[in-house]
Task: inverse folding
């Protein structure tokens, strides 16, 4: 019986202390809102990306991992850069193939009579 009475009194004291701390939270009241942590070192917009930019990229942690907007922005930028480079490589390869065909076409032609004189 005494143990039960002790537990009831202890429970009332704990509930009262928690209630007082929540209701009468002092002059400041609730904790102030903290702005979400944002990506500090984003990818540079004024030049093409290089390996060091990607290796140095660090996303701030949030409650459930990383901020999806920061990751989506970085992946979108990397995807655009890769697509641009792939298009440039394809253009250069087709120009190189055309130049190689043109060089083979001129070297296979028979020399003209003017070249023998």
Result:
């Amino acid at each position: 019986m005494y143990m039960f009475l002790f537990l009831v009194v202890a429970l009332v004291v704990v509930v009262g202390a928690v209630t007082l701390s929540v209701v009468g939270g002092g002059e400041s009241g609730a904790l102030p809102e903290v702005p979400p942590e944002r990506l500090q070192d984003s990818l540079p917009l004024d030049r093409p990306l290089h390996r060091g930019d990607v290796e140095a990229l660090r996303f701030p942690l949030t409650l459930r991992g990383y901020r999806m907007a920061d990751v989506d922005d970085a992946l979108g930028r990397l995807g655009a850069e890769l697509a641009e480079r792939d298009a440039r490589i394809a253009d250069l390869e087709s120009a190189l193939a055309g130049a190689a065909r043109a060089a083979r076409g001129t070297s296979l032609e028979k020399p003209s009579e003017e070249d023998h004189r």
